[in-house]
Amino acid sequence: MYTANQRVFELRYSRFSIVLQLLIFLGINFLSYLLLKPLFFFISFLFMCGAWALFFKQSQIKKIENLEKNLWSVEFSDQNLDIQQREILKIIDHHCYIVIYFSDPQHKNLIIWWDQLSYFHWKNLKILVKLA
Fold first, then answer.
1. pTM of the predicted protein model
2. E strands, 1-132, where?
3. Structural Rg of the chain based on CA atoms
C-alpha cells in the first residue's frame, strides 16, 4: 500500500499551462485583429487582458493530500484561507493533465498538469487515479 508521503502532492506553478494560454491568447488576438475593426479589436484586447489578470488573482491550490478513498485535503497558496477537506466525485486522467471533480458544486474543478509535480509524484497520482 502507500505510505503517507506518497499521497501528498505539492503543486508547483505550471509553465506548460501558461505557454498554452499565451498561445491561445495570441491566436485569438490575431484572428480578432484580422476580423474586427480597430476600435473593436482594441476593446476586445483590453477585455481579454483584464480577464487574464483576474484569472491570475485567484487563489491557487498549493498542496493536496489523499486522506481516504474519496476524501482529500486541499491547501491554498493564500495564507488567509484554511486547509479544507473536500470529497472527490470523479478523477479523469487525460495523460498530460488530470482533472479532479469535487462533489460540492461551489468548488471549482482542479486541473493538475504534468509539469506541476515531480515525475515520481506524477506517477503516484496516476496510480491513485487508476485505483479510484
1. 0.83
2. 8-10, 61-66, 71-76, 84-93, 97-102, 110-113
3. 18
